[in-house]
Amino acid sequence: SGNPNGIDGYTSYNRVSGFRHGSLLAKIGDGEYFSIGTYKVIVAQSSGKLQLLVNDGDPSNNSGSFTVQYSINKAISPD
Hints:
The protein is mainly β. The chain contains no helices and three strands. The protein has strands spanning 24-28, 34-35, 50-54. Strands 2-1-3 form a three-stranded antiparallel beta sheet, with no helix packed on it.
Protein backbone atom coordinates (compact mmCIF):
# COMPACT_ATOMS: atom_id res chain seq x y z
CA SER A 1 0.00 0.00 0.00
CA GLY A 2 1.39 3.41 -0.90
CA ASN A 3 0.71 6.94 -2.05
CA PRO A 4 2.38 9.48 -4.37
CA ASN A 5 5.14 9.99 -1.77
CA GLY A 6 6.22 6.36 -2.22
CA ILE A 7 7.27 3.77 0.35
CA ASP A 8 10.51 2.69 1.97
CA GLY A 9 12.26 -0.38 0.62
CA TYR A 10 12.05 -2.21 -2.70
CA THR A 11 14.55 0.23 -4.26
CA SER A 12 15.95 -2.50 -6.52
CA TYR A 13 12.62 -2.28 -8.42
CA ASN A 14 12.79 1.50 -8.97
CA ARG A 15 12.92 2.92 -12.47
CA VAL A 16 14.74 6.05 -11.23
CA SER A 17 17.27 5.70 -8.41
CA GLY A 18 17.42 8.20 -5.57
CA PHE A 19 13.65 8.34 -5.01
CA ARG A 20 11.28 6.28 -2.86
CA HIS A 21 9.71 3.20 -4.41
CA GLY A 22 6.34 3.81 -6.04
CA SER A 23 6.61 7.58 -5.70
CA LEU A 24 5.15 9.91 -8.32
CA LEU A 25 7.93 11.57 -10.31
CA ALA A 26 7.91 14.15 -13.07
CA LYS A 27 10.27 15.77 -15.51
CA ILE A 28 9.91 18.60 -17.97
CA GLY A 29 11.35 18.11 -21.42
CA ASP A 30 14.78 16.48 -21.27
CA GLY A 31 15.31 17.57 -17.65
CA GLU A 32 15.94 15.37 -14.63
CA TYR A 33 13.18 13.60 -12.74
CA PHE A 34 11.97 15.23 -9.51
CA SER A 35 9.53 14.10 -6.85
CA ILE A 36 5.93 15.30 -7.13
CA GLY A 37 4.48 13.48 -4.13
CA THR A 38 1.27 14.85 -2.64
CA TYR A 39 0.12 18.46 -3.16
CA LYS A 40 3.31 19.73 -4.81
CA VAL A 41 3.44 23.17 -6.40
CA ILE A 42 6.32 23.79 -8.80
CA VAL A 43 7.55 26.64 -10.93
CA ALA A 44 9.06 25.23 -14.11
CA GLN A 45 12.53 26.48 -14.88
CA SER A 46 12.26 25.53 -18.55
CA SER A 47 9.61 24.77 -21.13
CA GLY A 48 8.83 21.32 -22.43
CA LYS A 49 6.51 18.38 -22.21
CA LEU A 50 5.50 17.39 -18.66
CA GLN A 51 6.14 13.67 -18.15
CA LEU A 52 4.87 11.73 -15.13
CA LEU A 53 6.19 8.40 -13.87
CA VAL A 54 5.39 6.05 -11.01
CA ASN A 55 8.76 4.87 -9.74
CA ASP A 56 8.24 1.13 -10.13
CA GLY A 57 9.92 -0.97 -12.79
CA ASP A 58 7.38 -3.80 -12.39
CA PRO A 59 3.86 -2.44 -11.89
CA SER A 60 2.27 -5.79 -12.84
CA ASN A 61 1.69 -6.63 -9.16
CA ASN A 62 0.12 -3.25 -8.32
CA SER A 63 -3.43 -2.00 -8.18
CA GLY A 64 -5.02 1.40 -7.72
CA SER A 65 -4.18 4.73 -9.27
CA PHE A 66 -3.02 8.27 -8.63
CA THR A 67 -5.11 11.26 -9.69
CA VAL A 68 -3.14 14.26 -10.96
CA GLN A 69 -4.57 17.73 -11.39
CA TYR A 70 -2.43 20.45 -12.91
CA SER A 71 -2.84 23.95 -14.20
CA ILE A 72 -0.68 26.42 -15.99
CA ASN A 73 -1.14 29.79 -14.36
CA LYS A 74 1.04 31.95 -16.60
CA ALA A 75 4.53 32.23 -17.95
CA ILE A 76 6.81 34.18 -15.64
CA SER A 77 9.55 36.13 -17.34
CA PRO A 78 12.85 36.56 -15.51
CA ASP A 79 13.61 40.03 -14.13
